[in-house]
Amino acid sequence: MAKKKASTPQSFQRISVASGDGIGPEIMNAVLDIFNAADVPLTYEMVHMGKHWFEQGHSTGMTEDAKDSIETNGILFKGPMETPKGKGMKSLNVTARKMWNTYANRRVFKTLHGVDTVYSKAGIPINLTIIRENIEDTYGGIEHMLTRDVALGRRFITREGSRQVHKFAFEMARKEGITKVFCGHKANIMKLTDGLFLDVFYEVAKDYPEIKTADIIVDDLAMKLVVKPQDFQMVILPNLQGDIISDLCAGLVGGLGFAPSANIGDNICIFEAVHGTAPDITGQNKANPTALLMSGLMMLRHLGIMKQASIIENALLYTLEKGIHTGDFGDKSVTSKSTNEFAKAIISNLGQVPKKGKAKEMENSESLFKKPVKPEIQKMLTSPKLEKEAILGMDLFIESEKQANEIAAQVKLKLHPGLKLVMISNRGTQVWPSSSIFTECVNQYRIRIEGTKGLRLNDTDVLALATLLSKSLKICSVEMLNLYGEKRGYSLAQGQ
Ligand code: NAI
Question: Where are the alpha helices (DSSP H) in 139-261?
Fold first, then answer.
C-alpha cells in the first residue's frame, strides 16, 4: 500500500494525487509504491475526486479542498474516474481538462519489447506521439433539440485555442528532435472549423522552419496509420478526431494498458492513463498499471526528475522484456502476475537496463513546470480585430412540415425590398430555389436571408426580422451571416 512520505524535505515537490474509481486505487498504489522505491522526490497530497464525491452532492465531482490543492500545486496525477450515469452530470475527466485549460493532450505510443503485436512480430518499430486539442470541438457539449426530431450540436474551433495546441506541439517536436509533424483534419468537409485549425497549424509552423510539415485528411490518416505506422512521428488533431485516432494508436502498440497521457496547460497539468475504470476487473488485483506508470514517467520528465524517470522506465522495459506480464497481455503459457506482483517485479528490477530498447536519457532537460500564479481575472484569448467586419444576413432555423416552396412564398411576402431570400436548406442540403425531388426532409429548415446591393445589417435588424417572421413561422434558432475582411464567415449549403 502506497503511503505518503513521512518527512518532507524542502526539495520534494508537492503534487495532488487522486486515486480514482474502479481499478484506480489498485493501479495508483502500485505506481506510488514504485515511485517510493525509486526515491522519487515528490510529496503526494491525496485529494477527493470521483464518483463517491458526485454522490455526496459535489456537482463537479470534487471537493473545494481538492480544487484548491490542484490550483496551488499545479500538477494532478489521477486514476480513472467514473461519472454517475443518467443523472445529468458532466464527465469529471472532461470538466477537469476544460476548467483548468489543459489545452494539449499528449499521448505517446511506443513499441515495447515483451508486448507482442502484429507490428512488433513483423519488426516494424512504432514511436508515435498524438497531440490532441483538449478543450474545444464537440467537447463544448453544447447541444439542443431544435424540434422533437432534430438534435443539433455545436462544434467550437477557435483561432487562439488552436494556436495554443499547435505551439505546444511544435515546441515538443523541437525538444524531442522530431523531424516531421502532421496535422490531421477533415477540412474538406468542415471548411470553417477544421479549416481554421489547419490555417493556424501552417501559421505556427513558420516559426519552426527546421521541422517538415504536412496535412492529412483524418480518414486517410486512419488507414495509413494501420498500413505504415512507422511513417509517423507526431500528429496534431482536433479533439474528437484526436480521441478516436489515439485509441487506434493504442491498438497498434498492444492496447489501452500501454497508453499514457499528459494534459498540458500553462498553469495546471494533469497526468493520467487513457483507459477507464475497468469495472469488469475492479477489486481483483489484476489490472495492468503500466499505462498509469508511463503517465507518471511523463509527469516526472515534465517536472525535470529525469534520473528517476530513466531508472524506472528501464526497470519497466527490463520487466516486460523478461516476459513478466499481467493478464491482459503477454505470453498466455506463462502465468500472469497480479497488479501487486507486477509492481514488485518492477521494484526488484530497479537498476536493471533492458537489452533491446533502453529509456531515452535526457540529461540536460529542464523542468517544464511553472508554479501556477492565480490571475486577477480570467484570461481572454483573442486575435487582432479586422477592420472590415460586417453582417450580411441571417440564417433562421424554423420548425415546419410544409414543402420548401410554400415556406419560401410565405417568407417573401414579409421581406422589404432591401432583403432577399437566398436559399432554404434541410439537413444542410439546399431544397429551394432548386433541389431534387428525391431529397428527403425532416421537420426543421434553415432559411437564408441576405441584404441586397451590399446592404449591411446589424444585430438589431436581424432580431427585428426574426420577430416579424415569428408571427407566421415557428423559430428554433437564429445565426448571423458575418463577413471578416474578404472572408465569408459561414458555409454554403450542399448544392448551393
Ligand atoms: P475501460 O478502459 O475502463 O475498459 C475497457 C476494457 O479494457 C475493459 O475490458 C477493461 O477491463 C480493460 N482495461 C482497461 N484498463 C485496463 C488495465 N489497466 N488493465 C487491464 N485491463 C484494462 O473503458 P469502459 O469500460 O468504456 O469505461 C469504464 C468507465 O471508465 C466508464 O465510467 C467511463 O466513463 C470511465 N472512463 C474514464 C476515463 C478517465 O478517467 N480518463 C477514460 C475512459 C473511461
Answer: 159-176, 193-205, 218-227, 239-252
Task: State which of 256, 263, 286, 295 you would mutate to test the pocket of ligand 1, scoring each by most atoms of that ligand within 8 A of its C-beta.
Answer: 256
Which segment of 38-52, 107-121, 214-228, 392-406 scores lowest on mean pLDDT? 107-121
Probe target for ligand 1 pocket from 275, 280, 336, with the most ligand atoms within 8 Å of CB: 275
CATH numbers and ranges of domains, the chain: 1-102+278-383 (3.40.718.10), 116-253 (3.40.718.10), 389-488 (3.30.70.1570)
Q: Which three cell numbers stand for residue 363?
A: 540529461
In angstroms, how far is CA 258 from the centroid of its own chain? Answer: 18
DSSP state letter for 492: P
The predicted structure's pLDDT at residue 7: 45
* Lookup: cell for 449: 436571408
Q: Do 274 and 107 touch, CB atoms closer than 8 A?
A: yes
| Separation of alpha carbons 153 and 287, rounded Å | 36
pLDDT digit string (tens) for 430-467? 999 999 999 999 999 999 999 998 788 999 999 999 99
Task: Write out residues with Cβ below 6 Å of ligand 1.
Answer: 23, 80-83, 93, 256-257, 272, 275-281, 287-288, 291, 328
